[in-house]
Amino acid sequence: MLPNRWGLRRPSDIGPQSSMFNLGQSNCYGVAKILRSLGENFVSPEYLSVKEYPQRAPCPTNDTFHYEFNHELGKYWLENNYENLISRYKSRISNFHKFIAGQQRVFFFYSDRDGDINSVVDAIIEINQDDNYSIVIIDLFDGERPSRLRHHDRVSYARLRFPDKDYVWWRPDHHDSDAGVYFERSIRNQLIDAARI
């Protein structure tokens, strides 16, 4: 989903004002561990390594949290023992600490792979410092989950499907298609409804 075009994030937030989850790839347990740690060791060099993929720039990865930094591909983010990656995420981690208390907020998590979403929900509930929040779970996993999402008053859950099996959310020819716009609008509506709770 592209939150900027739906009015869910200001364009300036793409930069240092973002939170620590901008775009990455992990699993449910990895995300839960990152949340509970409040970002500690998220970009500590001793926890980082580099993943190499065919026909793709090298990707910094936190092996402990099973997290790939997909927005930070390339040698620039690896130089001087990950200096540029660390600099970017220090401000994002600080923003996340400010985010989990005070103003109304919505935590948005979507998953297209196997795993226990309850672990993410439990972690979000644990770290919040007040009750001024909602959680939206978009489940895109094409299969049966090993455990069902437990009911919680603050959680909205939607089971959606990608427009087709070859859909790639970041490709303009996909997300700008009629099916892609409909798909993103469905997610936006879930977030707007959660913000009203």
N- and C-termini, Cα separation = 22 Å
Mean of the pLDDT scores?
A: 83
Sequence stretches where pLDDT stays below 50 over 5 or more residues: none
- Strand-and-helix sequence, N→C? HEEEHEHEEHH
How many DSSP H or I helices?
5
The strand count comes to 6
Structural category is alpha/beta
Oligomer: single chain
Task: Work out the count of structural domains.
Answer: 2
The share of residues in helices is: 25-40%
Describe this structure in words.
By secondary structure, this protein is an alpha/beta fold. The chain has two domains: 1-99, no CATH class; 103-197. Helices cover 32% and strands 15% of the residues. It has five helices and six strands; from the N terminus they run H-E-E-E-H-E-H-E-E-H-H. It has a three-stranded antiparallel beta sheet, with no helix packed on it. A three-stranded parallel beta sheet has the order 4-5-6, with helices on both faces. A hairpin with a 7-residue loop joins strand 1 (48-51) and strand 2 (59-62). Helix 1 (28-37) packs parallel to helix 3. The radius of gyration is 17 Å and the shape is globular. This is Papain-like cysteine peptidase. Keywords: Plasmid.
